[in-house]
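I hope you will forgive my troubling you with a question about protein structure. The matter concerns a single protein, recorded as an amino acid sequence and a row of C-alpha cells. Please examine both parts with care and let me know of anything in them that strikes you as inconsistent. Thank you for your consideration; the sequence and its C-alpha cells are set out here:
***
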Amino acid sequence: MSEKPGNQTPNTPDVSETELRKMKVDELRKEAREEHIAGASGMRKEELVTEVAKARQEGGGGNGDKAAGGDAEDLGAGPDGGKIRYGDDSSKSLKYSQEITSPEEEPEREGRSLATTHHEVIRQWAEERGGIPATVEGTEHGDHLGVLRIDFRDRDANLREVSWEEWFKTFDDRRLNFIYQEERTDGNQSNFFRLENPDREDA
C-alpha cells in the first residue's frame, strides 16, 4: 500500500492525479487534446488534471484511446459532418459564430461565439459542465421529444432526462444548430448555449 501514490480519487481509482500535477500545463493541454477533451485551452491546471485523469480512466490508460471505454465511445460528427446548417431564418449570431467541426478545434479567443452540429463536440461540452440531455416536460408530440435542453447540475424539475441517441435524432431531424461558448470573456468556463432552427424563427 505504501508505494501507491497519494490522492487516489474515487472516480479515477487507477489514475494518480498527483503524478499529473507534476506535469507542466502545456504538457497537460497537449494530452487533453489527444484525449479529445474540448475546451482544454481555457482550463486551469487543476481542471486539466481532473479531466485528463478522467479521460485516462475511461480510455483504459492509453493516450487518445478514449473509445476503449464502454460509454465513452465517440458519437461521431452527425449527418452534416459538424457543419452549420443554414436557412432563411439563420440568425446574425450564427453568421458571426466560429464554426467548429471537430473536438480538436479551439476557439479563436476567449468569449468567442461558436456553432456546430458535431455530436461528439456537443456531448463533450455538456459533460464537462455536468450537463445531461433533456427535453421540456409537456412539450412532447406523441412519441417525439419536445423542446430540447441540456440540464446542468441543478437538475431542473421541468426537464426530463433522455438518451443522447434520442436527443441527437431529434436535433438532426429538426436541422438544429448548437450555438455556444467555451469560456466567457474573463476566461471562466461558460454554460451559455442555445439551439437554433435556421428554417424557422420559433426554434
